[in-house]
């Protein structure tokens, strides 16, 4: 052991001693909120101009914000919200912002209770702490709604409610929550409520009652995808804080930006690529992050996301996917939905699940295609109609490994599949 090594660090000594790559990798994570958001000034100004009446104790219009993942929607809203609260505090104006993630808070009860909790956290004083608060479960919903109104009236001022991923709430629980919230101002005298809905799904409004939609979308703002030069600016800003001086090769940032621009201009993907590239370089004790590390990071991220996607699939989808793997094992590199159905029926019998109809299997195949697990195309068979062909675009070994972790699809159980008989049935 050298004199510079600390024996108490043991196993981690070699990982702590190398500090040539990162200065602060946390600034590359999605949770980091920069002080400056490049290329989003028009959207930020638009949100600020709509919310500005709150500083005069007037009700701002409700806003619907659309845009693909990684286009800066949430970061921009949080930035404007923080600035609004800062100015309101300096003016002694009662103006508050509560931010909810509807991927987690996806029922009317949870939404109302979480808004109330947000109010408590903002306005809490020692005497307030003793006041009864809305539990996260257990009350009738109308009681929760009444108590929330009471808390709003007690707080006074303007409350801006941000519903991030609002489409998840609507798809899970319908539009009753939004209906109640968009009409809550008619029941209030001392306070006012404004709402901001953020969504990646431009079509979720199809699920809304027209009355809810007209109230919710008084203003609409669209966040366009970033292009490659804009992503370069974003990555350059973060890289200056994240990496040691001289820690990046010149081509790293443009390459990360180019890959992410191909994926709908997703800044999150660009940041992930840059961070993982740095981590891979760090682990191999490289002096600098190079383009080879970016290409390795791209492959790793795609593999990791594929594993996560497949491991969380429902059992029926896994059985359909496994049936496709068997077809590939039988040297059928391109196969049809009809062939998948034939193999699926054998496999479903072995794993003891109720077989689905051909139509439902086709639906599951379409979902696998949307997730990027397989590729599909519809081909014409002339007078025999059209059929769907599919194939794997990636190495299937990883897919097999993930599926094998499901007890129903273990190697022992699936050893009962008679591949020779199946091959013969396709001749």
From TrEMBL:
Pfam families: AAA_16, Cdc6_lid, WHD_Cdc6
Superkingdom of origin organism: Archaea
Domain AAA+ ATPase: 59-227
Gene Ontology BP terms: cell division; DNA replication
Cdc6 C-terminal domain sequence ranges: 321-403
Entry keyword set: ATP-binding, Cell cycle, Cell division, DNA replication, Nucleotide-binding
Coiled-coil intervals: none
Gene3D superfamilies, per the entry: 1.10.8.60, P-loop containing nucleotide triphosphate hydrolases (3.40.50.300), Winged helix-like DNA-binding domain superfamily/Winged helix DNA-binding domain (1.10.10.10)
Binding site for ATP: 71-75, 226, 238
UniProt-listed CDD domains: AAA, Cdc6_C
Transmembrane segments: none
Keyword Iron-sulfur listed: no
GO molecular function, one term: ATP binding
Function: Involved in regulation of DNA replication.
Family of the protein in this entry: Belongs to the CDC6/cdc18 family.
Protein's recorded name: ORC1-type DNA replication protein
């Amino acid at each position: 052991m050298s004199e510079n090594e600390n024996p108490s660090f043991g196993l981690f000594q070699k990982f702590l001693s190398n500090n040539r790559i990162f200065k602060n990798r946390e600034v590359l994570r999605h949770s980091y909120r920069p002080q400056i958001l490049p290329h989003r000034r028009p959207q930020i100004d638009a949100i600020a101009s709509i919310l500005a009446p709150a500083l005069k104790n007037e009700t701002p219009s409700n806003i619907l914000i659309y845009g693909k993942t990684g286009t800066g929607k949430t970061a921009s809203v949080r930035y404007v919200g923080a600035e609004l609260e800062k100015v309101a505090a300096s003016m002694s104006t009662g103006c508050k912002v509560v931010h909810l993630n509807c991927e987690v808070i996806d029922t009317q009860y949870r939404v109302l209770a979480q808004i109330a909790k947000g109010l408590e956290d903002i306005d809490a004083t020692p005497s307030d702490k003793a006041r009864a608060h809305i539990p996260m479960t257990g009350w009738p919903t109308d009681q929760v709604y009444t108590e929330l109104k009471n808390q709003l009236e007690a707080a006074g001022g303007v409350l801006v409610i941000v519903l991030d991923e609002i489409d998840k709430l609507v798809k899970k629980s319908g539009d009753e929550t939004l209906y109640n919230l968009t009409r809550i101002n008619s029941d209030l005298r001392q306070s006012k409520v404004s709402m901001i809905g953020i969504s990646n799904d431009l079509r979720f409004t199809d699920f809304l009652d027209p009355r809810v939609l007209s109230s919710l979308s008084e203003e609409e703002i669209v966040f366009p995808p970033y292009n490659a030069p804009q992503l370069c600016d974003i990555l350059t800003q973060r890289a200056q804080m994240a990496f040691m001086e001289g820690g990046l090769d010149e081509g790293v940032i443009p390459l990360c930006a180019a890959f992410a621009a191909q994926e709908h201009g997703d800044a999150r993907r660009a940041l992930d690529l840059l961070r993982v590239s740095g981590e891979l370089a760090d682990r191999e004790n490289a002096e600098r992050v190079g383009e080879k590390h970016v290409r390795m990071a791209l492959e790793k991220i795609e593999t990791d996301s594929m594993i996560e996607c497949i491991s969380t699939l429902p059992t029926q989808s896994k059985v359909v996917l496994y049936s496709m793997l068997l077809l590939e094992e039988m040297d059928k590199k391109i196969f049809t939905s009809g062939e998948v159905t034939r193999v699926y029926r054998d496999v479903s019998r072995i794993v003891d699940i109720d077989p689905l109809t051909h139509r439902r299997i086709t639906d599951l195949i379409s979902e696998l295609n949307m997730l990027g697990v397989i590729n599909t195309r519809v081909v014409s068979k002339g007078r025999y109609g059209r059929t769907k062909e599919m194939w794997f675009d990636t190495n299937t070994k990883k897919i097999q490994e993930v599926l094998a972790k499901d007890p129903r699809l273990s190697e022992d159980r699936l050893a009962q599949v008679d591949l020779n008989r199946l091959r013969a049935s396709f001749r």
